[in-house]
């Protein structure tokens, strides 16, 4: 950071003469609810969504710019928690808050832009997957969607946004206090919804290991693998065996959550996007650094198959329903 | 632009290993009104606000990232005009649209981030003004504020946003069609409100000429010179004679507008910010390239004086009222 907040613009180092940039709007009622998450978690999540987009190009996040619009009657402690969450997630990703802008509005709105640097590596786009490549995953899938379903089913009564009002500023631990249900894993799922833990370092790691394509899982695993398949002109064959047995899927907790709310936990795994995992393709035989885990392969064709069955490709978690 | 829209993030060239970045939120009802401006002008203005912030550091704008949230019932032609306006203003500033993100919302919201490159020059902050420096201005002041006052006084009946509905896509000329009042300059003032014309090139020009401090006039001339005075630890003496006689002030049109709405035109000049002019300080004796015009000088002390009278410094156009 060469010039920080307080001037007309920030100046940020771009050591290899390129800058990676991603932007996003988050709107109260659309992307978050104050009754389900405190300011700290919402700030952390807003930062995470953009920082992982930068990592998904193979870059190291360096800086975050924030436009923030809040109602005049928003409690100052809530706004302060929001900023704390943004700053904390920046630090978790190795980046800094470089600047921003504030204004008034009826509901809370955040415009977040993340910048990053490639460290001399080539950017990893969605379009480079080739037949024969491995498909691998880093980070969790399904946890945040399960946490949201638990909250929607009424699990928000305890361990919810009230934790933020206490001013602790460490909202990410709140979900663990008193979750609904008996299984201890349910608290972790709710925490995963409130504050995702994207695998930032796995992005540059994949680029260094020779990843041919990469994407942030934000629309859901199937939908986002579909984006890679389309951009690369290939078919992706997903195998649920290694996927559900691997570290990305917290199967026991998901099964307990599915029992609690009467849903299919495989739905969450295949179509939930809010964990912000990374998926990437690598040439066959590439030794994958942890946490990267093989979940499928690239073949000629188009679209995505799940255990050999072609997927309709209709979209992400919002549009998809299947019985497991 | 190395990787453009359609991937997780854009990759933009940063030839001198630094990137300049500014961000802003624009919200319907707060920053613009659909009844006073068409989509094209609102898009152009949203881009202009951020691109000039980058130029105010001495940088050349290179790229724009856009987060856009619109209601589901927004006419597609309006949204298309908005994008056209964003793209056109980018081109006017020498930049490209590098990427973005769309979502739904109750009202229109734009999150705009501009990037730029310094071409090897040092960034020009607000904090470098020294006693003895000249104070100079590039671009218009007062015009947009006068245009807004005309619209608020009912001059919007003709030549208004209806021009956009016709699908012409060239909204910037609409104000000229049929303005309220008799003076032909009034149409230009309304056009200046709808689509400001910031002096992008004057930013890098000032940096090359040795500017010691620079700022975008967005809060109003007095308020923004006050920001420079505070950041630099100096007093700025503004002289209204050279200011109002110079190219920044369209005095005849402003006087006609003031007559029409019963306001003081000097108020608009001193406190109107929406033209997005640039103010900068230069070492005494610096030959200033046009359009830079001397409007004052830097002396020891604090705050801003206008023709020798200390200014209260209470703020920008929203809070200031004086009889002329």
Distance between the termini of chain A: 49 Å
Oligomer kind: homodimer
Strand-and-helix sequence of chain A, N→C?
EEHEHEEEHHHHEHEHHHEEEE
**Overall mean pLDDT of chain A:** 88
Biggest sheet of chain A, open or closed, and with what strands and sense? 7 strands, mixed
What structural category do the secondary elements of chain A indicate? alpha+beta
**Tally of contiguous helical segments of chain A:** 10
Q: Please tally the β strands of chain A and state the result.
A: 12
Using the alpha-carbon principal axes, give the shape of chain A: globular
Main attributes of the structure:
globular, four-stranded mixed sheet, seven-stranded mixed sheet, 324 residues, alpha+beta, 33% helix, homodimer, 10 helices
Secondary structure layout:
2 copies of one chain form a homodimer.
Chain A: E1 10-13, E2 18-27, H1 39-55, E3 60-70, H2 76-93, E4 96-104, E5 109-117, E6 134-138, H3 143-155, H4 162-165, H5 184-194, H6 202-209, E7 213-216, H7 221-232, E8 235-238, H8 240-245, H9 251-261, H10 265-271, E9 278-282, E10 293-299, E11 303-306, E12 309-310
Parallel strand pairs in A: 3-4, 8-11
Antiparallel strand pairs in A: 2-5, 3-5, 6-9, 6-10, 7-9, 8-10, 11-12
Helix pairs in contact in A: 1-2, 3-5, 3-9, 3-10, 5-9
3D structure, described in words:
Two copies of one chain form a homodimer. By secondary structure, chain A is α+β, with helices and mostly antiparallel strands. Helices cover 33% and strands 23% of the residues of chain A. In chain A, strands 7-9-6-10-8-11-12 form a seven-stranded mixed beta sheet. Chain A has a four-stranded mixed beta sheet with strand order 2-5-3-4, with helices on one face. The longest helix of chain A has 18 residues. At the A-B interface, strand 1, strand 2, strand 3, strand 4 and strand 5 of A face strand 1, strand 2, strand 3, strand 4 and strand 5 of B.
């Amino acid at each position: 950071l060469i010039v920080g907040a307080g001037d007309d613009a920030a100046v940020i180092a771009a050591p290899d003469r390129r800058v990676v940039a991603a932007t996003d709007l988050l709107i109260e009622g659309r992307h978050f609810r104050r009754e389900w998450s405190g300011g700290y978690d919402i700030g952390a999540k807003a930062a995470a969504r953009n920082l992982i987009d930068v990592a998904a190009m193979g870059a190291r996040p360096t800086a975050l710019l924030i436009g923030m619009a809040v109602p005049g009657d928003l409690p100052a402690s809530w706004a302060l928690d929001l900023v704390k969450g943004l700053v904390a997630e920046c630090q978790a990703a190795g980046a800094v808050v470089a600047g921003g802008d504030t204004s008034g509005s009826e509901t809370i709105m955040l415009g977040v832009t993340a910048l990053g640097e490639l460290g001399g590596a080539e950017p990893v786009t969605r379009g480079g997957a080739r037949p024969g490549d491995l498909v691998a995953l880093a980070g969790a899938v399904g946890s945040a969607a399960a946490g949201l379903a638990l909250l929607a089913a009424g699990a928000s009564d305890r361990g919810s946004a009230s934790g933020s009002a206490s001013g602790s500023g460490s909202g990410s631990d709140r979900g663990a206090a008193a979750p609904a249900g008996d299984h201890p894993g349910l608290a972790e799922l709710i925490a995963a919804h409130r504050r995702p833990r994207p695998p930032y370092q796995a992005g540059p790691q994949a680029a260094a290991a020779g990843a041919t394509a990469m994407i942030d899982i934000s629309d859901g695993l199937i939908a986002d693998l579909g984006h890679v398949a389309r951009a690369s002109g290939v078919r992706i064959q997903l195998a649920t065996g290694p996927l559900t047995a691997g570290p990305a899927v917290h199967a026991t907790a998901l099964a307990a959550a599915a029992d609690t709310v009467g849903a299919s936990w495989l739905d969450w795994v295949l179509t939930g996007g809010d964990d912000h995992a990374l998926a990437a393709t690598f040439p066959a035989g590439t030794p994958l650094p942890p946490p990267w885990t093989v979940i499928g392969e690239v073949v000629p064709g188009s679209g995505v198959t799940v255990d050999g069955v072609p997927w309709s490709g209709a979209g992400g978690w919002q549009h998809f329903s299947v019985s497991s």
